[in-house]
Amino acid sequence: MIRKPKRSNPRDNIAYREMCRKIWKRDKGRCQMPDCKSRGAQVHHIRRWTDNGHGRYNTLNTILLCKDCHTKVTGKEDIYAPLLLRIAAQNESKQNGNN
User: For the segment 29-79, what is each residue's pLDDT rounded down to a tens digit?
Assistant: First the structure.
């Protein structure tokens, strides 16, 4: 029997887990979509993971969104990117003390 080689999951590594930890801390574990502060958020890549190899682990390319907001944004990343990039940058600036 010939076995197919195991595909590695690029999200299953230390760099990805560390980036997620930073995002959870930066965004205080809450959805960052305006007018939604739900908990139980998920890490969302503002510029899609598959289209943005160099930005996969960049904290400025990620933001926390609740499941509903994540579903709303998925497939419409180009529409929401300017808003979400601005929010991520503002959160990063606040966290670094550059109000």
Answer: 999 999 997 887 899 989 866 555 566 778 899 999 999 999 999 999 899
User: Tokens representing 87?
Assistant: 């929010």
* Cα 67 from chain centre: 12
Q: Is 80 left (phi over 0), alpha (psi -120 to 50) or beta?
A: alpha
- Measured CA to CA, the distance from residue 44 to residue 19 in angstroms comes to 12
By the 8 A CB rule, do 52 and 61 touch? yes
Domain map (residue ranges) of the chain? 35-95
Those residues with Cβ within 8 angstroms of residue 6's Cβ, 6 or more apart along the chain or in another chain:
none
- Residue 77 phi/psi, 5-degree rounding, is -55, -40
Q: Note the pTM of the prediction, 2 decimals.
A: 0.79
